[in-house]
Each structure stands twice: as C-alpha cells, then as structure tokens.
Design goal:
Length: 78
C-alpha cells in the first residue's frame, strides 16, 4: 500500500499564518484567562527536524491551570 502523509505541514516547513502565528493547516486553542501567543521558532535546540517549530507562549495567566495548544482536523473517505 501507498504511504500517505496524515499530518498537514507536520514539520512546519510549509509556513505560518501571518495573522495568528500558527502553522498553515493547524488551528490553535486555549482555555482562556491568559494571553496566548503562537509563533514560528527557528531556535535549533527546539527544532526536531528541518528549520522551524511551532512556539506557544502563555503569559499574564489569572491562574496556574491555563493551557494552549494546536490541533488538526482531517477527514478522509476510505
């Protein structure tokens, strides 16, 4: 069988949305009550492969249980 890439822009080499700083093909989420920033990062200690990584920063949180992340939705018909 043919191997298919299931993650869109998985290595973040395809670029980032200028307005939001999230990699193309990805969405961002957080649980609120904090300032969240998504951006591209090229600092080599955190880049697993290629030249870029997704950076997520949380600051000014009103409590310590704040979180943020990225996700993809992908549907396919077999």
């Amino acid at each position: 069988p043919e191997i298919q890439e299931l993650i869109v822009n998985g290595g973040f080499e395809g670029g980032f949305q200028e307005e939001f700083g999230i990699g193309y093909g990805w969405g961002g989420f957080s649980n609120g009550n904090a300032v969240v920033a998504w951006r591209s990062d090229s600092w080599q200690p955190i880049v697993a492969a290629g030249e870029y990584a997704q950076s997520i920063e949380i600051k000014d949180a009103l409590s310590q249980d704040r979180f943020a992340g990225i996700y993809q939705n992908r549907c396919s018909i077999l």
